[in-house]
């Protein structure tokens, strides 16, 4: 990723931090949240005890790196001071100087948050060097003097509630205009394909895929023959459910496009005007 792109994404992420003091939500990432907060507490204590001499420790692969979690620090002038992760290449760079006026103003607002002892949190999109793609990331941060100390983790798995919300949205659009909705799904429209959340649509008359938000090779193929990565006949099972009910759900193994791993997927189903609309979420069982 280019240096300018890295700076710009950093600016965008900091924009999203403005005014977002809150408790971390209880969700599938509860363990990651606990780890991140524990590492942040440890780093804040270290900085309060040692001051800027702690920056070298934060930038080393040691006590302030916990798996994929690492500490990074930005000062209130917009300069990256320390990082235990890939963003170490940004250390010493004046972030503000490469942002446009709007981003510069928003960045200044974000890093001017008061030193009030509050741990703030936010979600933004950031480049994941491990997966080689942009993913959602949740960050926790606290200001100490003129330093903003932060730690975050990637969120490759959406929640069941998010999957059900997207299913409702797409089902309404299919009911209103099936042809256009199918085209948008197949074009990976950003409103209908969100990270690991995507839809597929099956025509109940032909029993073939007419849309798929992740695997275009499946479009036009026989849905009844679809099997999970461990060989279960999920196509047949879904068709049986949809012949008997207007809504349902099924759990099976499938490849998560964000992690590239075979994971358990919980897929929610809705029958709409002769189509099956489906959206699922991934979870390590």
UniProtKB/TrEMBL annotation:
InterPro entries: Double_Cache_2, sCache_2
Cellular component per GO, a single term: plasma membrane
Keyword Transmembrane helix: yes
The keyword Cell membrane is annotated on this UniProt entry: yes
Signal sequence annotation: 1-21
Compartmental location: Cell membrane
Location (main, coarse): membrane
Domain Single Cache: 22-108, 145-236
Pfam family, one: dCache_2
Topology in the lipid bilayer: Multi-pass membrane protein
Protein's UniProt name: Calcium channel protein
């Amino acid at each position: 990723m280019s240096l300018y792109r890295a700076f710009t994404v950093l600016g965008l992420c900091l924009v999203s931090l403005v005014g977002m003091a809150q408790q971390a939500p209880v969700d599938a990432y509860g363990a990651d949240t606990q780890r991140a907060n524990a590492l942040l507490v440890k780093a804040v204590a270290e900085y309060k005890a040692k001051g800027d001499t702690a920056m070298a420790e934060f930038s080393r692969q040691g006590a302030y790196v916990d798996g994929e979690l690492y500490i990074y620090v930005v000062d209130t002038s917009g300069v990256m001071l320390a990082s235990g992760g890939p963003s170490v290449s940004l250390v010493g760079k004046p972030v503000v100087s490469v942002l446009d006026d709007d981003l510069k103003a928003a960045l200044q607002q974000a890093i001017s948050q008061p030193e009030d002892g509050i741990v703030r949190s936010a979600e933004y999109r950031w480049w994941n060097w491990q997966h080689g793609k942009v993913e959602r990331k949740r960050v926790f941060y606290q200001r100490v003097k003129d330093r903003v100390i932060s730690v975050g983790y990637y969120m490759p798995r959406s929640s069941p509630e998010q999957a059900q919300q997207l299913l409702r949205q797409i089902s309404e659009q299919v009911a209103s205009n099936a042809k256009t909705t199918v085209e948008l799904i197949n074009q990976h429209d950003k409103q209908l394909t969100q990270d690991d959340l995507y839809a597929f649509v099956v025509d109940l008359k032909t029993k073939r895929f007419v849309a798929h938000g992740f695997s275009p090779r499946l479009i036009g193929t026989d849905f009844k023959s679809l099997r999970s990565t461990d060989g279960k006949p999920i196509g047949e099972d879904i068709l049986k459910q949809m012949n008997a009910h207007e809504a349902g759900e099924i759990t099976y193994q499938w490849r998560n496009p964000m992690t590239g791993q075979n994971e358990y997927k919980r897929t929610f189903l809705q029958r709409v005007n002769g189509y099956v609309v489906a959206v699922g979420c991934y979870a390590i069982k």
